[in-house]
Amino acid sequence: MNEGAVIEYGSHYELIAKGGTYYNLFNSQQLQQNNEVGEIIVQSEGEIIEEHKYESTSSILTNIKNDYEYTTWELIKKILRISQPEILVILIGLFVSIVNGCIYPIFTVIFSNILQSFTKIDNELKRDAKIWSLMFLVIAVGTLICNFIQGTAFGYSGEKLILRVRSATFASILRQNISFFDEEKHTTGVLTSELALNATYLNGLAGATLSTLLQLCFTVFGGLILALIVGWKFALVCMSCIPVIIGSGILRIKMLNGFQQKTKKAYESSAQFACESTKNIRTVAALTHEEDRLRIYYNMLDEPMHQGFKIAFLISIIFAVAQSVIFLTNALAFWYSSRLIIVGEYDIRKMFTVFVAVIFGSMSAGRAFAFAPDIAKARTAAASIISLIEGVPTIDTWSNTDLDIKPGQYAALVGPSGCGKTTIISLIKRFYDITNGKVEIDGIDISALNENVIFGCRPGQQATQEDVENACREANIHDFIIALPDGYDTHVGGKGMQLSGGQKQRIAIARALIRNSRILLLDEATSALDSGSEKAVQKALDIAAKGRTTLAITHRLSTIKHVDVIFVIKDGKVHEQGTHQELLLRKGIYYTMMQEQ
């Protein structure tokens, strides 16, 4: 086909016999076997790229040190450290939370005095009613002010925390080595979840949740202290339900923490699966695998769902027991208080002061543990985010190898898949750091070079239209671009959807050329292209390689027969080195690879 029309058809041999377009495409893929050895010129201007011998034979791996189990208190301290710029706002919020927590014990005193006032008559009752009604008004105004300040302070600091954590998480992701993303637990779906959800969950250990918990704690302790001061005998009886409530709450949090840890991996895997399915929806639709993908996704979530049912059942039992104990305690408290009132040891005001203080305290304790799901999510999210932010990658060494590329040389790396070709490129790009050996450019270790120098980009570089057009001419794409309706201003869709593979490749080459770098690294630049596009791209690469030190990786040996030096890589080592003709004469690995093509 050419330009959307069928120009030839037939079997392979029929089309070869015609000597037309198919014949020309077929010939362009054939290797010329020439037994003549050309002259080898070795420049002595110094080494451009040199990889010295490494001591270890282990493969490159990145292991983030995130196995440490943080305690909840450690996580809170780390979160507060991240929120340090808003520390004044947080302190104001904490102080107001304490004041807000003391309102209920004060209300208890007022309420018990109101009940006592109902035993009075006429003027005394009217006078007490005015006084205590005014006190309720004061409490209402105080509650309004405290809750407003508390909500504003922790809402502001919480949003700032989420913004700062998301920024720090994204910055941490960007600075990780490439091998970091090779791990299953660091896939796109998982990392996206870290940014989108986990940062928000942190409010369970900070922000409004923390302020509410602090308020409830002071309500509990304030009420208990008041009850013990007013009447310790009756207070101890009323307080018998609180250990049960606190114990059930702690058990609930531990169970939810365990549930979150167990299901986290399943949810991350399902998120990655959904991300991959959506990203490759064209392939899924073409193979009519929608139902299969949905079934797999359902099965991935099935186990967490059943675990959730089990946890919900157990937690419901614990919660039911805790709530029933409160009413059993009330029954015991009223029975015991009647005995104290009969003997004259307590009056109505004293009894209700103790009873209401303890009851409000126990209710507040129950409300505090209602935040258990949020705390469990927040703890898991905080541990994951802190590990990611503070994680330092450690790099193991690679296998023994020694490469030397001279200035201006066009070198190629060939070998079977998985032999280490791309790893060499990654080392030169400093995607990985090494612990033994060196990677040098002009005798300078690349770890001492600024990244902008390695990438060949001048800081603040602004390319002119002339620079763009010159780069496109060198990349053999200029004529195609100016033939478009709007020339260089033509929109070609997201990810260049309206361009062919060869056109995308040549535009990518133009982007590399506009930097005017001295070193050009090519990794399968002509892969997945038809013969016509391959020839156009290869022509652009040959032009781009002039005057530059070029290192190319390829499986198509026909594209590198003209290069200055070819390195044959196998099992992470250089087994053969030389020009195309020299390697053919040796009849070794390169010769065998050529015969297979």
UniProtKB/TrEMBL annotation:
Domain ABC transmembrane type-1: 91-377
GO CC terms in record: mitochondrial inner membrane
PROSITE patterns from the UniProt entry: ABC_TM1F, ABC_TRANSPORTER_1, ABC_TRANSPORTER_2
Keyword Transport listed: yes
Membrane topology, as annotated: Multi-pass membrane protein
Transmembrane regions: 87-111, 131-156, 205-228, 234-253, 311-336, 348-370
Subcellular location, principal: membrane
Pfam families (UniProt xref): ABC_membrane, ABC_tran
Residue span(s) of domain ABC transporter: 383-596
Protein family according to the UniProt entry: Belongs to the ABC transporter superfamily. ABCB family. Multidrug resistance exporter (TC 3.A.1.201) subfamily.
Record-given protein name: P-loop containing nucleoside triphosphate hydrolase protein
